[in-house]
Design a protein that fits this description.
The complex is a heterodimer of chains A (509) and B (242). Chain A is α/β, with parallel strands linked by helices and 509 residues long. Chain A folds into two domains: 428 residues, 3-Layer(aba) Sandwich (Rossmann fold); 54 residues, no CATH class. Helix content of chain A is 51%, strand content 10%. Chain A has 23 helices and 13 strands. Chain A starts with 13 loop residues before the first helix and ends in a 9-residue tail after the last helix. By secondary structure, chain B is an alpha/beta fold. In chain B, strand 5 and strand 6 form a beta hairpin. Chains A and B meet through helix 2, helix 3, helix 4, strand 1 and helix 8 of A and helix 1, helix 7, helix 8, strand 9 and strand 10 of B. Strand 9 of chain A pairs antiparallel with strand 9 of chain B, so a sheet runs across the interface.
Chain lengths: 509, 242
Amino acid sequence: MSGASHEGTSPSTVKERAEIALNNEFLRKAVKFTTERLRTGKKSASEEHGNWDLWRERGRQIRLHTIAHLDYYLSQFIENARANGVHVHFAATSEEAVELTMAIAKEAGARSVVKSKSMVSEELHINAALEKAGIESVETDLGEYIIQLAGEAPSHIIIPAIHKNRYQIAELLSKEAGKELPPDTSILAGFVRRKLREKFLEADIGMTGCNFAIAETGSIVLFENEGNARMVSTVPKTQITLMGMERIIPTWDDLEVMSTLLPRSATGQKLTVYMSGITGPRRPLDGDGPEEMHIIIVDNGRSLQLGDPEFQELLNCIRCGACLNACPVYRQIGGHAYGGTYSGPIGAVLTPSLNKNIMEWDDIANASSLCGACYEACPVKIPLHDMLVYLRNRKVKNGKRMMLESAGMKGFKLVMGNHKLYESAVKIGRAGQVLVKREGKIKAKIGPLKGWNSYRHLSALPKQSFREAWQELEKDLKQEMREMTAETKQRMEQALKTRKGGGNSHEQH
Amino acid sequence: MSSTEHEAFLRDLREKSLRQQEQFIGNIKQRLGRSGQGGEPPAHPFKGAPDFWQEFELKQDERVNLFMDNWKKAGGHAVQLRTMEEAKRFIVQLSKDLSAKQLLIQNQEELHAMELDRSLNGAEVSVWHQQQGLSVAAGADIGVVVVDYAAAYTGSIIVTSSPDKGRSVSLLPTVMIAIIPAERLYTRVGQVLAHFNGSIREQMPAGIHFISGPSRSADIENDLTIGVHGPGIVYALVVTNE
């Protein structure tokens, strides 16, 4: 994204980011409402379809099989894609993927790029690189376009602008339109349609992600509702597709299972409005579609999970977002609190795994109540709650506690251990901030705020504190907890037992 | 950029790609604890949908009803017609009702036979053409296609690209009309996918598009908006040919 980086560089912890999220009343309500809607949609869609657990099990088996033979299927995909006329490239790191994209864009003499939604491209921060080279890069998914204008990162994998209300959106789009637009959904969407239609027709390059790649024919498959991914892969002369190396499925038959699981789990739809299978660039006599097609296969930390008995199943993820909607913690704090490209339970496990730095990201694993709702929701049955336990376990084993953290923890313990001390600390803060507070923000780079405020402005202490808001959160959590099934309970007990037994030994799932 | 220079650029990328492929796949093999070439295809016992699902099959009238029901629930319009002549009359009437100025039809036999231009005064009817198809599509009010397949259970039509069938015709116009000959309507998505499974690669169309209603988004405050990028008004005309 073109705005402040949301990864790695942030000095804050999940707890601090969560406090900010909890202070933002609108965000909290919007996230709760949206996740509730999606969760209910998924529930009724899976119930209506029937035999949901049989489908989940089939989905899991296909993913397990493909990942276990990833060398074979990826090679088959590459060979077939090349035979279709696709230029296939490899990127071991995000930097290599950016380099390749820039080389192709410069060679094409590109002035503008239109993009459809791709989580991989969020990993790469490709927009910033393109803009630095003077190439306009436009996100064309409605939600992504809105947050691009705001200079922010997506807060939900399926509904990226979940945290913006229509008044904020109208303000952003009015700036773009050069005139006042009313906060009316259909007028705002109509403006975006016209504006982006021009962008599609002018663009030199279309960039897409890849939901699935079919080994047997070297095809990529895109799921979407707006039609922007179809635009991006139909109008520009050159197409660049960014693909995570684990997106493979063996055959078109297997797509029936994935197309049954993904839309129902993501939004409760029987199928997304568009599901497109793209097999190479346009044929010589075709009238539209890209003349040149590039697929960049990205590793960027994925291969680290291969052969790891505790985390290999992470590669089975089909990026539906169901675990976010199911997670009581996500529903309270929203996506930005996780601080990485991926949020929610999947992000809590995937971010440290992709970054290979468990220590830096360790606190993210604690942003979970281990209730197992994520596993219940997962359409390919990834045992995310077990993985969160493994992650905490590895952190403790590594044993390194930073000096500063320990010192901070002592002070924290002292204050937190005594509610009177805590309350007076907050009161002192509330009184003290009068000196530095401007428009609800604290911008001063003084004392303990120096590091934090060098990057962003700290929200002023709210009238209702995190601790006061906790009562509500706790109530919600308790409701969630009741939903734990016997199966989950058993899994959790098993995980505990294994842990007590000491060491890494753990049964394969 | 001359074409020979561009070819040299692509050749360099290809050589680099081939070098990296060895490393990339080698790393995966090593992580998976495999060595050697291992070119044998692995047995895939869980291919495709569960067995019970493969037996699920509806009768034609059930398929038609379920398809139309799903299409309408997604926000589209659906009608059942007996003949292509009825379909033609429907298209002519709709074009008049909407005061359409520009119609774009795929270069398909069934659509030529309708001779829409003869029945529509005041509206221009263009046929998809590989030369200037895209710009015509960008200005068209209505795009008309005859689908390759349809699937009742998800309420989807399936269109594929070819020199005679542009991807833009079902995408760029404000309104899309899809004609579905009932014999191309299957029960399940899997029955349509089976047409591409194990296909001879040379015969694969570049674009295979499942479309299940009007373009939509809920990105602004979860408020459903229709017609964000693709057509917001979509008609499915199921022709039973009785």
